[in-house]
Amino acid sequence: MPAAARSFTFAALVALTFALATPAAGARGGGDVVVDSLEPLLAAEFSLQAGRLDDAAKWSLEAARAAGDAGLAERATRIALLAKDDERAAEALALWKREGGAGTSLLAAEATLALRRDDPRAARDHLAELLQVPGTEGWGQALSVLASGSSDPEQAADVLDALVRGGHVPDQLQPWLAFGGLAQRLGRPDLAEQIVAEVVRRFPGEPRVALLHASQLRGADKQDQARDVLASLVDGAAGDADLRLAIAYEYDALGDLAEAAAVLGRGPQDDQTYALRASLLARAEDKGELVRLYEELGREGNRPDPQRRLLLGQMAEFLERHEEALDWYRGVPGGQQRWIARLRAAHVLHELGRAAEAHASLHELQADASAPDGVRRDAYLLEAELLARGDDPKAEMDAYARGLAAFPDDLEILYARALSWERQDDIARAEADLRRLLVIEPESVAALNALGYTLADRTDRYQEALELINRARAAEPDNAAIIDSYGWVLYRLGRHEEALAELRRAHALQEDAEIAAHVAEVLWVMGRRDEAREYFEEARELDPDNRALQRALEETGA
């Protein structure tokens, strides 16, 4: 739980103390309201810290009832929605309204509850009211509700369709673009096409509309038409760096990496543009173009420019011109880039087969008192990574141990070592490191999620995993990785329909091979083999070597 959430109890208690001292509060009668509300408020907080959302929903509602406080009622509503306790959410919401609650947050909560209760008409009405609020807050809240408030993407898409057809979307470009993108993520190309057509009608000649159109065509598997739309934008984008970047992104999404790099190459150039072009050409494995770009920049490499020499070193490294890369890195004159160059130089030495020199240079960096602490810490992490590549787990773990001796309880080193233990199938030690991390930083969402997912995926301690993941969910309820972990532990608990709904929600929020593999495995187990194969294929395209994908394929025999 983040610090802001953890400190809520004390802030709330102070506020209650002052509020209940007023004549208005005292007029309620019926006992000592401070005492009556303090116990459930603390119980709710402890339940949240333990990941017991059902108990947290119960106690937070009791605290809100005892205090008659709108802020506590709002919090009780949010916790009950997270716990999927619709009955308590409805009661807390009613109390929130009775105590004077109003505004966009209340409307968003009402809409979310309506979606959860499968009442799309009420959800549409609340969202329509939200969309009438001026500025970005209203439509932004509506977008958030539709993106993550429903467990059924098809239901959310139907409500969005009704809002579009009813003319409720504000007559501004930004919300139309946002809702068009959401329609694509919800898997409704027909709705995305409808929105794009309306946006083109309302905002003709606007380049961002053309970009949305290209994205919609790409989502509808009309790649050639998408390329035609993008080609029509290129000539007018030379003087607009942001537009060039957006066009390049769309070409990248189409898999046209060389074309994306060519678009970025039109117009004024700077180090960021050069770096992006180099990255695209490297991913495209277009070594011919990358060599030309490298040689063009190399002609200016005699200037003592740290950023340029660092970039040239990285390009030479990708081109496997390791000796040249080493020269560029060693020629970086100063600044933060010099430290990065020293780390990269050690990596190059390892690639050259000069492992002893690589490790010696990292040891030198680790002992350099003038180096920033973060760089010295990263030298231990890189050493461990190089040793892992050499399949020397004992030496790898020794590097982590020395790193922790130099930087006791460093969160980055603990986290990296935990992941390494997990890869080595030593789950007990992975768990020990993650728990140690949580002692140091109890609100670390990454550690809560990692430990919860590890227990769900690699052990049968599913209830414990659920509580850890619930703590992460309480802190970041719209985080796709955490929603994926939540869906996965529900699957392990045998709650397949609930699991599929959550995993689809995670998939709508983030394109990721592991999430797609999880959706596929659940569909396969539920007997929906054709759908499962589509998600398996998507996961293969995104990352064929993904460990979760490989395990899912082995588990299902797909």
From TrEMBL:
Species this protein is from: Lysobacter spongiicola DSM 21749
Keyword Repeat: yes
TPR-type repeats, residues: 513-546
One Pfam short name: TPR_2
Keyword Signal: yes
UniProt keywords, alphabetically: Repeat, Signal, TPR repeat
Signal sequence segment: 1-27
Name of the protein: Tetratricopeptide repeat-containing protein
